């Protein structure tokens, strides 16, 4: 099973600033990496797939990068609605696995 | 419009059986996979397994193999997740989501979630 490790567990950032979230895979997943956002009481929402492709309707301030084992989600200028929990997920094979999540909180 | 509508919240006792559902609409139910994801209270997301309703090809995460059964009835565009003997540790929110391929990410929209509470 591919283990996904996210860092940091919690990130405190002020509105308008940039946030950088990291995700590492225990073995190469090529570009088969997605990012999800989850707000309290809601189902997760797909933000990024293919490591860097924005899903439909996702604002341009969200960007993803990386390949192999190291990935990054960057939110260029944080809006109030961006404070949530973010999960990375690999789908390199059918045994999909998620990272443990990064909580993005208001500083 | 693609929609996944899940069955309502359940409260069960340990040892009881349960089957929850996920009904798809607005897309070809038999040409897409349905996956199930568990979220225990205050915890992260865990992918449980997937089913291809077209031919009932079913695959499980090693963590959930033997613990749950995933099935589908393509005649009514509905996938199921079931337990034969619930434990308190099965208390969680369960989401279904569509995958266009076994090796593709669960795409939006997900089901709204079914909260399962197991308590004596």
Q: In terms of quaternary structure, what is this?
A: heterodimer
Distance between the termini of chain B: 40 Å
Sequence of secondary-structure elements of chain B:
EEEEEEEEEE
Helix content percent band of chain A: under 10%
**Alpha-carbon Rg of chain A, integer:** 13 Å
Task: Describe the protein in words.
- The complex is a heterodimer of chains A (107) and B (120).
- By secondary structure, chain A is an all-beta fold.
- Chain A has no helices and 11 strands.
- In chain A, the strands form 2 sheets. In chain A, strands 2, 4, 5, 6, 9, 10 and 11 form a 7-stranded mixed β-sheet that branches. Chain A has a 4-stranded antiparallel β-sheet with strand order 1-3-8-7, with no helix packed on it.
- Chain B starts with a strand and ends with a strand.
- At the A-B interface, strand 4, strand 5, strand 9 and strand 10 of A face strand 5 of B.
What keywords describe this structure?
heterodimer, A: 107 residues, mainly beta, seven-stranded mixed beta sheet, four-stranded antiparallel beta sheet, 0% helix, B: 120 residues, six-stranded mixed beta sheet, 48% strand, globular
Summarize the structure.
By secondary structure, chain A is mostly beta strands. Chain A is built from no helices and eleven strands.
What is the secondary structure topology, with strand pairs?
The complex is a heterodimer of chains A (107) and B (120).
Chain A: E1 4-7, E2 10-13, E3 19-25, E4 33-38, E5 45-49, E6 53-54, E7 62-67, E8 70-75, E9 85-90, E10 97-98, E11 102-106
Parallel strand pairs in A: 2-11
Antiparallel strand pairs in A: 1-3, 3-8, 4-5, 4-9, 5-6, 7-8, 9-10, 9-11
Chain B: E1 3-6, E2 10-12, E3 18-25, E4 33-39, E5 45-52, E6 57-60, E7 69-73, E8 78-83, E9 92-99, E10 114-118
Parallel strand pairs in B: 2-10
Antiparallel strand pairs in B: 1-3, 3-8, 4-5, 4-9, 5-6, 7-8, 9-10
């Amino acid at each position: 099973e591919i283990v996904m490790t996210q860092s940091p567990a919690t990130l405190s950032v002020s509105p308008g600033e940039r946030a950088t979230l990291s995700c590492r895979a225990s073995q190469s997943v090529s570009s088969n990496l997605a990012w999800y956002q989850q707000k309290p009481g809601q189902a997760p929402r797909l933000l990024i797939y293919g490591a860097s492709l924005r899903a439909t309707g996702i604002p341009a301030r969200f960007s993803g990068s990386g390949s192999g084992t190291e990935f990054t989600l960057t939110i260029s200028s944080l809006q109030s609605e961006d404070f949530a929990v973010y999960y990375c997920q690999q789908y390199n094979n059918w045994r999909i696995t998620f990272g443990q999540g990064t909580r993005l909180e208001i500083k | 419009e693609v929609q996944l509508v899940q069955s309502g919240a359940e409260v069960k006792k340990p040892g009881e059986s349960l089957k929850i559902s996920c009904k798809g609409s607005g897309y070809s139910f038999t040409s897409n996979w349905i996956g199930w994801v568990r979220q225990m209270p205050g915890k992260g997301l865990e992918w449980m397994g997937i089913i291809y309703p077209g031919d009932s090809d079913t695959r499980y995460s090693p963590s959930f193999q033997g613990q749950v059964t995933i099935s589908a009835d393509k005649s009514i565009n509905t996938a199921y997740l079931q337990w034969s003997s619930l434990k308190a540790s099965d208390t969680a929110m369960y989401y279904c989501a569509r995958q266009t391929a076994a090796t593709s990410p669960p795409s939006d929209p997900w089901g709204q979630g079914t909260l399962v509470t197991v308590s004596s």
